[in-house]
Amino acid sequence: MALPLMSLVSDDSRYQKSFQLFLERSSEHQCMRDFIHSRLPDILASIGDGKSNLNVIGVGSGAGEIDLEMLSELHLKHPGVTVDNEVVEPSSQQLHNYKVLVSQKQDLDYLKFTWNKMTASEFEQHWKAKKMTKKADFIHMVQMLYYVKDPGATITFFHSLLNKNGKLLIILVSGESGWGKLWRTYREQLCNTEISQCVTTGDIKSFLDSKGVSYQSYELPSQLDITECFTEGDEKGELLLDFLTEVLDFSKTASPELKAGVLELLQHPSSSVKSNGRVIFNNNLGVIVLDQLC
Ligand SMILES: C[S@@+](CC[C@H](N)C(=O)[O-])C[C@H]1O[C@@H](n2cnc3c(N)ncnc32)[C@H](O)[C@@H]1O
C-alpha cells in the first residue's frame, strides 16, 4: 500500500541536495543572471529617491548567489550608496553557505548584512511585534513563494513594506512551464500540504488582478534535463523527481498509478522536448515586479 506523501521541505537536508542537483541540471540560475544583467538595472534605477542608504530584503535567499548578483547591479546603478541587506532564510545550512559566499567576495563594503534565520511568516510576526516602521527600497522573493502557507498574504505584507519608489520582485515558475502543466494536473495529489504550494506566476497574476494591483511581468526561457528520472532506481533521477513533485521519496511513497501518471506527463510533448536522447523539461520562469502602493 502507498504511504502518505510527505512534503520534501520537511527534510531540509534532502531538500537542499535535490535543489542543488536541480540547479546543476537546469539553466535556472543562468536565465536569472541574464535577466539581472539585462532588465533589472532599469527596474532598480528609480528606487531610493536619491537617498544615501538603501534598505533591501531578500526572502528565501538560499545560498545567496542570485542575491549577490542583484546587489551588485544595485551597486552599479547607485554607486556611493550604502545598503542594509536583511536576509530572511530558515535553513541554517543555506545561511551558512551564504555567509561563506560573502566571505569569499571582495568589494562588498557598501553592504551591511542582517541575518534572519526564520521563515517569511516568522519575519512578519517579528516585524509586527517590534512595531518596525523601517521601509524597504527593494524586496525580492526568488523561487520561494511555494513554501509559504498563503502566498497572497505574504505578497501583501511585503508589498506594504515598500518605500516611495520601492520595488518588489517575485520570481516563480511560469504558468506556461512544464511545472504549470504538472501542477494543474496533479494539484490534488501533490500540492495539498500546508507548507508546499504549487503556485506559478499565472496564479500570482490572477491574485494581483483580483486585487486591482498593477505590475510588470517578464518571461524567462529555461530548461531542465530530467532524463535520469526515467531510469528506475537511479539515485539522481529520484532526487530530481522529489524536487519536481515536492514529495519526499516520491518514487518509494507514491502509488504506482500516481508515479506512472507523473512520469508520463513529465515526458509528454506539452511539458518536455526530446533532444539527442535527453528529455528536456520546460522550466520557464516568470518575473513579476510591483511598485509601491500609492
Ligand atoms: C528554491 S530555493 C531558492 C533559493 C534562492 N532564492 C535561489 O533562487 O537560488 C527556496 C528557498 O526558500 C527557503 N524557504 C523555504 N521555506 C521558506 C519560508 N517559509 N520562508 C522563507 N524562505 C523559505 C528555502 O530554505 C530555500 O533556501
UniProtKB/TrEMBL annotation:
<keyword id="KW-0489">Methyltransferase</keyword>
<dbReference type="GO" id="GO:0032259">
    <property type="term" value="P:methylation"/>
</dbReference>
<comment type="subunit">
    <text>Monomer.</text>
</comment>
<keyword id="KW-0808">Transferase</keyword>
<dbReference type="InterPro" id="IPR016673">
    <property type="entry name" value="HHMT-like"/>
</dbReference>
<protein>
    <submittedName>
        <fullName>Histamine N-methyltransferase-like</fullName>
    </submittedName>
</protein>
<feature type="binding site">
    <location>
        <position position="283"/>
    </location>
    <ligand>
        <name>substrate</name>
    </ligand>
</feature>
<dbReference type="InterPro" id="IPR029063">
    <property type="entry name" value="SAM-dependent_MTases_sf"/>
</dbReference>
<dbReference type="GO" id="GO:0008170">
    <property type="term" value="F:N-methyltransferase activity"/>
</dbReference>
<keyword id="KW-0949">S-adenosyl-L-methionine</keyword>
<feature type="binding site">
    <location>
        <position position="28"/>
    </location>
    <ligand>
        <name>substrate</name>
    </ligand>
</feature>
<dbReference type="Pfam" id="PF13489">
    <property type="entry name" value="Methyltransf_23"/>
</dbReference>
